[in-house]
Amino acid sequence: MVNKDLYDYTVDDVTGLLVENVDAVVIVDPAIDTYKTIVRRGMFETFLKESGIYHDLILDLWFHFSDTGEKVTGDYQIFADNTGIFNTKYSRRLKLYLEDSQKPHLVQLTVYPVENNQKYVFVMDEFVDNESLQETLTSKKIDTIQGSFLFSMYIDLVADTTSSINVSEISDDVVNYNLKYSDWRMMIVNMIWPEDQEQFLRRTDPEYLKANFTPGRTSSYDCMMRNLEGKFIWVKLIFSRAQTINEDDYRFVFMVQDIHNDSMEMLSTLHTYEEKASKDPLTGLYNHGEIETQLTSAIAHRQKNDEPISIMMLDLDHFKSVNDNYGHAVGDTTLQHFSKILLDIVQEEKIVAGRWGGEEFVIICRDKDETKAAELAEKIRQKADQYLFPEIAHITCSIGVTELKADDDFTGAFGRIDKALYTSKENGRNRVTVL
Description:
Blueprint lengths: L10 H11 L2 E6 L4 E7 L3 H4 L3 E3 H9 L17 H4 L6 E7 L8 E10 L4 E8 L2 H18 L2 E8 L4 E7 L13 H8 L8 H8 L1 H7 L5 E9 L5 E10 L9 E8 L1 H19 L9 H17 L4 E8 L2 H8 L1 H21 L2 E7 L2 E7 L3 H17 L10 E7 L6 H17 L5 E3 L1
Parallel strand pairs: 15-16
Antiparallel strand pairs: 1-2, 1-6, 2-3, 4-5, 5-6, 7-8, 7-11, 9-10, 10-11, 12-14, 12-15, 13-14
């Protein structure tokens, strides 16, 4: 365009200047879910088609990770239709990735609703290098401030609206989705771990929030939620009611905080302490307290269900002579090697094994009647009989077996395996007795 005196420029001249300098202009008709590209230059020659589906364009613009061009999981793409509705002018910065691109293109998007908001004009420009650098530095500062918060939004329960929605993994900018809170709640519940969904619906219910939150009160709880990659992670859901004078003004801030790493570390620590509390430190089998609990649970299960459960008690024969002749250190080693035989079988069979005390052991066999339990007991007896133990070389075990009855209590069931074990001992040891 030929240069003119400032006061000679007309609306048509300015329109021409804009068309010549803008990087992309797109016309959108949301009613038919279609867009048409009017102008495309630079990276937009690759990014935009001449025409296409508007829903897909929204996914390309918004629903990808801010640090890569990878799309968010399909579960979250259902929000795209609410993102592409504009009642007023709208502007924001975007990070866009071309296919196989490692570096984002920083783009300014402005949306102009036209024809009574029935159609939209999208105007897009890519930043030059200096501006891109400033934007990157700003983003890093924002990322540092946001820390582990994945999502935040403002809620008005009376108006049933959401606003100021920010998904930090997608963009640093706040987005105003055209989405009711009641609709958002029923959409997002599908991202919650199935066992946590009932609690989520109860604690996000508008009437629950109104009844349990005074102005200024904040509350949170932990659950598992699907992230934008489609993986379930531990998060903290936080609700905070705005501090207002009007008690009938129910406005809230809702936030989702990523606590996955800390939660997994805590669960690992709890599991470690649980292991220490339930396992015998010498053998690695369940200790007396835990195997007694498991036995009580098995008896209660058999009382309620017609499913076979058998139990057995094992005792190492003449073990006292091992301690007397070789010392307690060798005795401990012998117990550890015998326990290794049991642990190997535990991995093969559906059984629970524990050290009852000294050289006595108890095994619980779910889904096994006395015949199958006796076969398993004989397998254990043979393995022990054939095993070469350090220092002592050879030691045998005696075993008592019984199948639980529907009317068994702990005393009756334990009395039978104790009697069965005693019978094996009385009849020469290194044998299995079923009672």
